[in-house]
Structures are given as C-alpha cells and as structure tokens.
Design goal:
There is one protein chain. This protein is an alpha/beta fold. The chain has 3 domains: about 200 residues, NAD(P)-binding Rossmann-like Domain (Rossmann fold, 3-Layer(aba) Sandwich), CATH 3.40.50; about 90 residues, N-(1-d-carboxylethyl)-l-norvaline Dehydrogenase, domain 2 (Orthogonal Bundle), CATH 1.10.1040; about 160 residues, NAD(P)-binding Rossmann-like Domain (Rossmann fold). The protein is about 40% helix and about 15% strand. It has 18 helices and 14 strands. The strands form 3 sheets. Strands 3-2-1-4-5-6 form a 6-stranded parallel beta sheet, sandwiched between helices. A 6-stranded parallel beta sheet has the order 11-10-9-12-13-14, covered by helices on one side. A two-stranded parallel ribbon has the order 7-8. α11 runs antiparallel to α12. The longest helix is centred in the middle third of the chain and has 32 residues. The protein binds uridine-5'-diphosphate-xylopyranose.
C-alpha cells in the first residue's frame, strides 16, 4: 500500500518521512517547485530535529520520493493524505482554498477505490466539503468511483515532530466506512505495536477533537499567565504555585508554564478558527475570547516590564534578546512573542541585538527590512556577543544553551546586570548574590521602577 502525501510543510513532510521510515513507499507532492527540487537534493525547507536523517535515508533507499505532479504520484497509490496549509483568512476562519483545490485535483484523476485523508487541521464539516469537491469532479467526468474521506488530525509538536509522530499519545481516526477503517488500521499498525493508540470515531468528532485539544492547551497557558501576572502584583512566586497545582493529577504538570505568550502555527490560528466557527453559528465563546485576549496582552508584558524599568522613551537604550523562535527546537517565527517585543522596542526608540541558535536565517528572511535598517535591530554571532554593552538581557525563548549560561561573563558584558526572564529559566536566589537585578513572569519580584532611578540614573 503506497501513500501520497500532498503538502510538504511540517505536517506533510513529517508524515511522509515517518511512514517511509516504517517501510511504506511514499510520494510527497508540493506545488512549490523550489521546495521539491531542494528535497530531491536533500535540502529540507524546515529545521526539525531528526527529520533530515530520515528524509535522506529513505530517499536513498528509494522509499521516499518528491514531485510537483500529483497525477503522477496518484498512479501507484490509493491513499492520499491532504496536508496543505489552512492559513487564517482575514476574519480568522481557516481558509480552505488549498485543501479544496487538492480535493478537486484528486477527483480529476481518481481511477479506483481510494481513501482521502484530511491531515491538515480543518474545521468541522470540511470532510463533507472535500467529499463534495471530489464527487463534483467525478460527476463532470461521468464516472462512478467509490472513495472515502477520513479525518486523521495530526498532534505533533514542532521541535519534537518526528518523536511525536513515531510515538504518539493517540492516533485519531474519524471514518464512516469499514473499508477505510481497515486501511487506516493497517497503515498505523507499526506505530501501534505495544499498545492500541488508535481511537476511532466519526469524521466530525475527529475534526472537533483537534480543535478542542489545542484550545484546551491554549486555555491552560492563558489561565496560568493570568495567575502569574497576579502573582507579580501580590509578591507571590508562581513557580511554587505551578508545582503545587501541577501535582494534582486532575490538573497535571504540562502546559501550565507561564511565559510571554504562546505562538506558533497552531494555537493562535486554531483558537481563532474555533471562535469563527462558533460565531458563524451565532454562538458566543467568552472563554475562548478570553484565552486569545490574555495571550495578546501577555505578548506585551516583557515590553511593559522594560518600560517600567527604563521609561517609555527608550532612545539610546540597547537590549539583548535571547531567542527569536516561538519556542525552542524550531526556526519557526510565526506568532513568536519575540516579534511583538522587538517591534515595540524599536517603536520606542531602542536598539535590539538578538541571538537565536537556529532562527537567525529565518529572521533575516522573514522579518521586515525596516527592522534591520539603520542597524537598530542586529543579529549577533553568538549569545554572549548579543550582550556587549546592552542595558539588559531579555530571555524570550528557553533554548537549552540559555539555561545555564556563564553569569560572570554576562555581568562583564552587559552595561548593567539586569535580566528579564520571559520563561522563568533562572533562579533568583542564584542571581541575587551575583549582583543581578532579576525579573521573571509572576515571580513576585518586579524590577525597580524607573521612578527609583530619577535624576542622573543612579544605577550607572
Ligand atoms: C501545538 C500542539 O502541542 C500540538 O499538539 C499541535 O499539533 C500543534 O500545536 P506546537 O505549536 O508545535 O504544538 O508547540 P507547543 O509545544 O504545543 O507550544 C505552543 C506554544 O505554547 C509555544 O509558544 C510555547 O512556548 C507555549 N507554551 C507551551 C507555554 O507558554 N507554556 C506551556 O506550559 C507550554
């Protein structure tokens, strides 16, 4: 049973590579010829730990192929995974044009019973639209060919995508025919050796499961960020509170880490899409609205803390920023809190010297040229270079090399030993004797306000 995977983004490429790794012959299709040429030459469009190795090995062993030609790829396969993008439209709802264009193309070339699998995160009811789009093309051709549409949402996390795909907590399969179910069962059997991981359900239930999971995780984070901000005001250390509540198995210790807001391609987009789906039915979503609003506000918190410490006019100040990617282990800058911080700092007249272990090229390519013009935003060659002469360090992404840095060297390099820790990575009790001013998120330890530094800035 050969597979075709359409779309070579995070989900498509990981899906294709991992099925090939499990012994299937897979053809990955993308309309982006540059991407396909790169992949044929072993150049990956994304950074993802462990992915390059399995792409190269399975390509060399002739199990993983890349093409821009869907009809050609369809010839040897009866299972088509749709893994193209569903970007947010102007109103935040998921834009299905790419998914439906693929469905129509599949309909134009279908030549025998096939299973069409929605792998992209798509709103409830999309499988029906995919089915209708395929059927419309079959009707135009005047042929009767049976097919099934299955919903098989992907739960992988960027930075751990291969590991998540290979050892998933669960595999959700929404399908309405025994024939499709048997095919999906066979496909996922190698991932299922030690315990049954597949949960079968209806198609719409599978579509909703993905949104509900992401929205609940986003809710946990926004809730915790709200509690953290309150802890700041009350002089309470949220890190103890986090440990305290996380030990309750009903709450659990995951996704309650406060910080400077969630980013990435999923949480912001999926929460918005779910809100739009509800509003389209005339249903209000005060809980989801609050999750979004808290997150937007949370991305401003680092800037607000810096303004309180240094004043609202930041001309003449330089800030070192450690971490640009929306989280460690990826070069993905989508919806990254660093974006919001840097933009706010530049608008307030400050200069920024940033460093990220892998997202530097991505930042150079993706961020507005205006940000780099006149040298106000510069990218440092290594993490310590970013600190030279800076007024403070802001930790935005908790990459491993930032976790146990050389504090003595940092103190020498920074103009003043001030650390604003957007991910609560450091121990205030370790930093205080070293002479650092420290503030995290909800540690109950606010940096002194600018009012304490009036006149000729006592700290200098
Ligand atoms: C998420 C889901 O975890 C995954 O199942 C789904 O398929 C896609 O969306 P991803 O976006 O790759 O995956 O990253 P994840 O590790 O979930 O982190 C998302 C964001 O939440 C990051 O910005 C991260 O920094 C933030 N986060 C996460 C917190 O702020 N606190 C936490 O406790 C956990």
């Amino acid at each position: 049973m050969n597979l075709t995977v359409i779309g070579t983004g995070y989900v498509g490429l990981v899906t294709g590579a991992c099925f090939a790794e499990m012994g299937r012959t897979v053809t990955c299709v993308d309309v982006d010829a540059g991407k396909i040429e790169g992949l044929k030459a072993g150049v990956l469009p994304i950074y993802e730990p462990g992915l390059e190795e399995i792409v190269l090995r399975n390509s060399a062993e002739d199990r993983l192929h890349f093409t821009t030609e869907l009809p050609e790829a369809m010839q040897d396969s009866k299972v088509y995974f749709i893994a193209v993008g569903t970007p947010p439209g102007e109103d935040g709802s998921a834009d299905l044009q790419y998914v439906l264009a693929v469905a129509r193309q599949i309909g134009r070339h279908l030549d025998g019973y096939s299973v069409i699998v929605d792998k992209s995160t798509v709103p409830v009811g999309t499988a029906d639209k995919v089915r209708a789009a395929v059927q419309a093309e079959l009707d135009v051709r005047g042929v009767k060919i049976p097919f099934d549409v299955v919903s098989n949402p992907e739960f992988l996390k960027e930075g751990a995508a291969v590991a998540d795909f290979m050892r998933p907590d669960r595999i959700i399969v929404g399908c309405e025919s025994e024939r499709a179910r048997e095919i999906m069962k066979k496909l996922y059997a190698p991932f299922n050796r030690n315990r049954e991981r597949v949960i079968y359900m209806g198609v719409k239930e599978a579509e909703m499961t993905k949104y509900a999971a992401n929205a609940l995780l986003a809710t946990k984070i926004s809730f915790m960020n709200e509690i953290a901000n309150l802890c700041d005001l009350l002089g309470v250390d949220v890190e103890s509170v986090r440990e305290g509540i996380g030990s309750d198995s009903r709450i659990g210790s995951h996704f309650i880490y406060p910080g400077c807001g969630y980013g990435g391609s999923c949480f912001p987009k999926d929460v918005q899409a779910l809100i739009r789906t509800a509003h389209a039915r005339g249903y209000a979503t005060p809980v989801l609205d609050a999750v979004e609003a808290r997150n937007a506000a949370q991305k401003q918190v680092l800037f607000q803390k810096l303004s309180r410490r240094f004043g609202s006019d930041l001309r003449g100040h330089t800030f070192a920023v450690w971490g640009l990617a929306f989280k460690p282990g990826t070069d993905d800058l989508r919806e990254a809190p660093a974006r919001v911080l840097i933009e706010a700092l530049l608008n307030a007249g400050a200069s920024v010297r940033a460093y990220d272990p892998v997202a530097m090229d991505a930042a150079r390519k993706e961020w507005p040229a205006a940000w780099f013009e006149a040298g106000r935003l510069s990218l440092a060659a290594h993490q310590y270079e970013a600190l030279e002469g800076a007024d403070a360090l802001v930790l935005v992404t908790e990459w491993k090399p930032f976790r146990h840095p050389d504090f003595a060297a940092m103190k020498r390099l920074l103009k003043a030993p001030i650390i604003l820790d957007g991910r609560n990575q450091y121990d205030p009790e370790e930093l205080q004797p070293l002479g650092f001013e420290y503030e995290g998120i909800g540690r109950g330890l606010a940096l002194p306000s600018v009012k304490d530094f009036t006149g000729s800035l006592a700290r200098r």
